[in-house]
Amino acid sequence: MGNGINKVLPDLYLGNFKDARDREQLARNNITHILSVHECAAPMLPEMTYLCLTATDIPSQDLTQHFKESITFMHECRLKGEGCLVHCLAGVSRSVTLVIAYIMTLTGLGWQDALNAVRVVRPCANPNLGFQRQLQEFEDTQAEEFREWFQMTYKDNPFNDTAEILKLLGRLP
C-alpha cells in the first residue's frame, strides 16, 4: 500500500513500514524522527529518533490512549525544523488515525475533513471503522480539551497549518 512517503504538512509525512527503512527517502525529506505504530514497533535505524507504539489494526484497538504522546512527538519534531514520518505497516489505518488526531488538534477541523485532506496527498488513507469511531468520539468529547492543552503548552503555533489543510481541501486558493 502507499506510494512512498507522502507530505501531509511541512515536516510531517505518512508512509509504510518499507518507507521507514528507506534511508534515501528519509534523507531527501529531512526526516530525523519516526513514529512507528504497529504490532512490532521498534527502532530500526540508529540515526533516527523514535516513538514506538504497539498497536494492532483491529477496530477494538484503542488508539486514543496514544493521541497526546503522538501529537507532542510530531509537533516538537516540526518545531525543530526536522521531518517526522508517521508509519504503520501499510500506512493506511493506524498511522493515518494519529495524523488525523494531530490535524484536528492543530486546526479545529473535524475528523472527516482532516481525513479528506490526508487523502488528497495519500489516497490510500483509510482508518478502520473502529478508528473512525474513535476519531468521531474524540471530535465529540476530547478535541476541544486537546486544543486548549495544545495552546497552553505551545502558545503560538508558528505554522500555517489550517491554511495548508484548507488548501488541500480546495477551500483556499
Give a structural overview.
- Activates the Jnk signaling pathway. Dephosphorylates and deactivates p38 and stress-activated protein kinase/c-Jun N-terminal kinase (SAPK/JNK).
- The chain is α/β, with parallel strands linked by helices and 173 residues long.
- It has a single domain, classed as Protein tyrosine phosphatase superfamily (Protein-Tyrosine Phosphatase, Chain A, Alpha-Beta Complex).
- The chain is built from seven helices and five strands.
- The protein has helices spanning 23-28, 67-79, 94-107, 111-121, 129-141, 143-154, 161-168; strands spanning 6-9, 12-15, 31-38, 49-54, 83-87.
- The chain has a five-stranded mixed beta sheet with strand order 1-2-5-3-4.
- A hairpin with a 2-residue loop joins strand 1 (6-9) and strand 2 (12-15).
- Helix 3 (94-107) crosses helix 4 (111-121), helix 3 (94-107) runs parallel beside helix 5 and helix 3 (94-107) crosses helix 6.
